[in-house]
Amino acid sequence: MSQARSSRQRYRGFVQDYKQRRLDDAAEPSDSPRPAPGERRAYVREYLRWLRPYRYAALALLVLALLTTGLQMIEPLFMRFIIDRVLLKAGLDTATRLARLQLAGAAFVAVVVLSNVIDALRDYRQRLLNVRVMMSLRRSLFERLLHLPLSRLWDMKTGGILSRLTGDVETTTGLLQMALVSPVVSLIRLSVAVAVLLVLNWRLALTAMAVVPGAMLISFMAARRIRPIYRSLRRDVEHIDGRVGETFSGIRIVRAFRRELQELLNYMRGRHTVLRKELFAHRRELVLWTSWGLMQAGVNVVIVWYGGYMNITGGASIGDIMAFQWYTFLLLGPVWQIVNSFSELQRSLAAMERVFDVLAMDDDKPDRPGARDAPRVVRELRFEDIEFAYREGQPVVRDFSVAVPGGSVVALVGRSGAGKTTVTDLVARFHDPTRGRILLNGGDIRDFRLRTYRDLLAIVQQDVFLFDGSVRENIAYGRRDATDAEIEDAARRANAHEFIAKLPEQYETSIGERGVKLSGGQQQRLAIARAILASPQILILDEATSNLDTESEQLIQASMAALLAGRTTFVIAHRLSTIRRADMILLMEDGRVTERGTHEELMTVRGAYYGMVLRQMESDGRNAEAVWRG
How far apart are CA 420 and CA 586, in angstroms? Predict the structure, then answer.
């Protein structure tokens, strides 16, 4: 969606696409291709499979709906009886008329009350079933989203994920009513109404029903044309929601560059475009609804007019005419419900495609057949001829081979873009190697169950992510069963307890979304405390102390030494204080390891690593030789 175009220009482009039937093809690159009719049927079958556990509840709904329908079909007969057999019946005395009227009226009231009670029960059970199906579908969708490849999630963006979990799931749940219960009940009501009308007076029945088939056909065709509009609407809302999320996640940048007005204009352009499209769809639906209202009124006029003629000529009674009007309402009601269900079905199908398209996606890294639990202790982590590329033919890590003994500290250094973070992502199995393999105690890490392998890991990144909640909840994120004493101990070891104790509610203090109520250094120390509490076998520190001031970093070094003890650790850092005591330093350039060894060994060689240290010391005003000697 172009930021420069006004909402009017966007709307005009949308109308042109709609008129030329290009709307469904105007998808964004992240959208799934439009499914073929056979694929749509597959989606519907998949939805019905989801309903299978609720088949008895759906059957009960159908029975209740049929009971309501049967009772409603009896109601006009009471009116016909009262008019023809009581009010206009010749030869009856007043007492007999009153007795018949009381009996018929009481039965009439009982049928109406029973019909409404059953219909209320059906409506409640319908809503209950919808909620159950919606929660089941939403749970499965959320679970699948949690395990999708990162690239898929990046393509969908936050707005796309939220729109699928909220609006799309709710709309999809409407299929139960729109595609199953309502059409079936309406068809039965339609069949019964037609049969009763034909029995009462076949001439009047044929006259009343003459316009129905053509009206249904036209309505179906009109309703089908509405579906692409709602698909386009959902796409726009997804973009808008995603942009709103980005705006408030980066609100500091927005304010720093004085972009508040531009973001507001972008938001309003998008919303105005959505409003125009909604009104565009509503106008087409309004034509449909108005046409049906006129047709229903016309049929009533015909019944009164033609029925009056037949009454005068002796072909129909007044009761027949009144019952016909009621049955016509009961006839056109189901027809309208079928057409309206078809219109609503278009929205539900468009949403269903998006939901089940995600559910059909493969998990990020499904466990291999015969996968086993990962070992509890790391004795060795070995990289064998590793190559990895985000895009085919453009590897960012290549010829990477190294053996890391368990419990050792490996420092990855080099320029930005050298492949350091990618290596740690491979260790964490955020990605799998394009070529080569990573062995844990001699076994390929892809042969271990992913969940048990990730149990070995903890990560502290430069871009710290904290959740909206209390300090306690964030520290214990990796160990929900941790005691208060363990949480406080982890905070002390991360040099975080002192500032936590000064917070308004200490460990129960809410830190806001992404920890916005804390400074960068405080956020970093909470992230380190979270890693300490997790007690991992493999620890990844990606610029973990970059947001700490010099004093805090010095205070935390001793705690870091305790954290690293006995753990296989990968450290990405530029500060020498973090890496100089590493058991192995790997200098990377263009995805390859160009130098390896300890700090002392690499300083002796006086290669690229020595030059990097020298430049850093000169920038800090310190002597590189003193650093080399420790």
Answer: 9
